[in-house]
Amino acid sequence: MNIIKTIFLVALSGVLFTSCNNNNDIDLPKGDYENGILITNEGAFSGGTGTVDYISDDYLTEESSIYSNVNGENIGTVLQSIGFNGDDAYLIANVGNKISMADRYTMEKITEITDGLSNPRYIAFANGKGYVTNWGEGIDTTDDYIAVIDLASNIISTTISVAEGPEQVVANGNTLYVSHKGGWGSGNTVSVIDTSTDTLISAINVGNVPDEMIIDNSGNLLVSCEGSKWSTPELLGSLVTVNTSSNTVSTTLDYVAGFHPNNLVLSDTTIYLSTSSDIYTMSESATEIPISPIISTTISAMSVNDGEIYVTDVKDYVSNGTLTIFDKATGDQLKEFTVGLIPSKVYFN
Amino acid sequence: MKLKQVLFIVCWFFVVCKLQAQKDTITLELDAFSMSIVKVRDFSKGYSSILISDSLANKNIHSLTDVLRFNSFIYFKENGLGMVSSPSFRGTNASQTAVIWNGININSQLNGQTDFNIVSVNSYNNIAVRSGGGSVLFGSGAIGGSVNLNNEITFKKSQKNSIVLKHGSFNTQHVNYDFVKSTDKIYLNIGLGYNASDNDYKYLNSSLSNENGAFYNYNFDVNYGYKINAKNQLKLYSNNFLAQRDLSRTLNAPSNDTYKDISLKNLIEWNHFFSSKEIITSRVSYLFDEFKYYDNKEKLDYFSVGSTKRKIVQIDYNNRFSRKIEVNGILGFESAKAEGTSFLTHERNIFSAVLSLNQQLTNRLSYVVQFRKEWQKEINSPFLYSLGIEQEVNENYTLSFNTSKNFRTPTFNDLYWNPGGNPDLELENSYQFELGNAINFKNFNFQLNGFYIKSTNLIQWTPNDFGFWSPQNISNTKNVGLEFSSNYKTSFKNHYLEINANYSYVSAKDLETDTQLIYVPKNRANFLFDYKYVNFNVYYQMLMNDEVYFLVDTIPAYSVSNLGFNFQFSNIKNKPNVGFKINNIYNSYYQSALSRPMPGINFQITTILNF
Questions:
Q1: Between chain B's N and C termini, which has fewer beta carbons within 10 Å?
Q2: What is this model's ipTM?
Q3: Distance in Å, alpha carbon of A56 to nearest chain B alpha carbon
């Protein structure tokens, strides 16, 4: 009895002590989903909804479908991507033709955008506006555009007509770069848009099927033109560097046949490229495409943060996929999680 | 418009689907001879089937989907009311249910299925639903079962005009005119029908409604028979159907797609009677199907298209040597050509030969044995067989058994879709057996069947190394289940009561993952209560459907009930009938396919005039 009492008192004092300490804490938590990663899952094409899973940095907390848990509604069919503008997350449902805007740390919905979208893909932010790539109707090659969102009202204020299949979009100051992967066909250009006038200022010929882009530490635009394995004949890819002051191609590193990386990530000064089976690294200043992978595994999408590489695998597209975390330095597998249906990118909160 | 309104108000009627055991005798008369009905009857020993009769035009129904889901064991996955509706029989998939039009297998050559919401609801005299494998008789795809849509051409003097008018919730309209004139030499039937609906019902538990769900369709049918002489009859069947359907949104995505379908079916049949027992029938059939898919219904210049043209020739010899032995042999040739945006132009030719023997061994024991072999280039068709046995144990109890080997041939989409089509595909194979118990009393019938189906080499589309989907012969499944049906009928004075109940249990598993297949409910039941008093009829139908799985989602179990009334005004000229039906009377929220809610309570009024 005495012992129990003592334990109880000690425990109680511990609680009191801790709460006193907390009063001095100035870093208030921003939400349940801070200090972790968000995994986007496309979900079923036929009637399904995209979902977002959360895993805390210490791997102790896992929660699936956080957006619908918090808001009691779905994101919409095929979650293509999430774009972040400060604390605001823009969740883009491609087939759902909807952008849900939510607080990135609490996932509480702020508003939604449904008017003016047609097969939306990705979003970037510049000049107080959001820019969303839209494929338009599949069969019409001339109706593709960038929807411009006025971030004050979250309404699409205007559109900019572009070539077929605008995919990724990145901002470099007030200039936007849009890669034309080509939609249901195959493209080979990058559109340059001036966000002060919202006009197309040039189209740069890059390589076949340009997809992911990054702005490197020297301010150049790197475009991974992944080519196409299933075209007849095969379309070879390349890594293209664009000088952003002149908006011209400065260097092109050709990919060999059979090499079609669909992910391109920059972390510090290292470039990460991944195909569906291998991850490669190269330095920003490298003049050759690496040939030896650092990690070999099944890869649908790859994301990299300070210390880890995050790889999602869609498996068979009909059951839940996985997320595998690798140590960036050693390539060792740290942890594997089961995530939602057709997982794609990981975002760091 | 005025006339319509008057007609709607006039009176009420409904004829409930009458289910009767197919085995019940329909005596073969030369005057009412239909080879396709004979086939289902004489060569289905050991198989259970139900006949949904009465002129279908009289039924207070939306669609064939509606008739069958409330009256048979077939489960339908309907993508919202009126949208694509694919059947699943005994846990097999939609392309493993064969739909037979007057003896011709009409499953799509492109996707292997029949969409029951683009099959005309007005055009057939009866529908026979036959459970179990029937590839021997009906060819590719008759694995789970078959649905036979029949027109009967008879040479009995009669003349009939009938008009059916329906009006329902969501601005649903239906007009049908049917004309039949027959003499002892000539039969002529002309049918014209129009169906349309805004179909913009509100989703329960949601602020959304069924946007972009409107549809309309037309049918034009001619069935013509000419008795050349005592030994020769010529018959022509023509069924033409045009439809446009917007594809409705889901809970998770809007839609502005639309679909147009054309289906033209033509069949000429010549029956030559060597005697009343020995008949040779020649058939020539031409079938044309075309779909056009529009990604955006505002941009009608942009669409993808697919069409198939089929030419079929059959020689069918049937001989009833005695009351105890009947033999049937069929030689067939089919040439099918498909053209389309996604698969260019391809053609295939199939020869087939079928031999069937039906023998009554004793007064109580009979069997049917059948064989089929097909020949087509580059595809190795198996030798198919079917055996059915019926033993009448006593006057109330019949035991039956059947076993069969069935197949499904890859479709044009499977073989040639670009990208992904796999020209190296093989046939899907299926082997099955079934044990049936039928108990029949005067007022009460009871049937319990257990089945086992093992299918191998099932074609499944999966993502390949090149990053696109491609079909492979990879999946193997095992379906085990029970079907129970019961029927009770009684009458006293002018009262007539009928109660039907069907229940099925299906365990359909993928042998690799050991999980229930997508869109297969384990438990399913339907129930009908039907009461008539003189000219008045009231009926209540209920459907209970277990939960089904689709990928990572589960669609919850549901039950839905309808209540209807009919009244025949027998003292008014032409005895008009008026029916009033309340669909989903408890306003249940349910989905048939993922994120596609079905309508809540809704109403329909029907008027039928015969003159």
A1: N
A2: 0.86
A3: 23
